[in-house]
Amino acid sequence: MPLPPQKFREAVFQILFTSDFAPIPEEMVAFMMAEMKTTRREIQGAIDRVKEILEKLPEIDPAIADASTGYDFDRISRVERTILRLGLFELLFDPRTPPAIAIAEGIRLCRKFGTVESAQFINAILDGISQKHAAPAAETQVSV
To answer: Which CATH architecture has domain 56-144?
Structure first.
């Protein structure tokens, strides 16, 4: 049975978080299949998404650092940093995900895996970057 988008995003988050420590172990696939009651294909899809995110880190991490004026990038907790990486990937590189959904899902993940207090931080960063990238697009549209 296919994973609903929220559960797929949770799988991506968990794999992305793990990849911050070491390469993704094969045992994790079997573990996640059992925990999420899904197929190898679904988990492989999540791993593929993680690989896409990791390829874009040279663009994503500086955007987080620029938007996070109150915290040094290295001081952001690993949970929050992983949520921001996933959210920014969806905002900047996944045209299928509307910005409002990417932001709302970042907040939801933060409440589930992080803290309620850090949800405000996630919201501020994702919303700020979303508005920053929406502004240039609006300026390039020509009025008739």
So the answer is: Orthogonal Bundle (1.10)
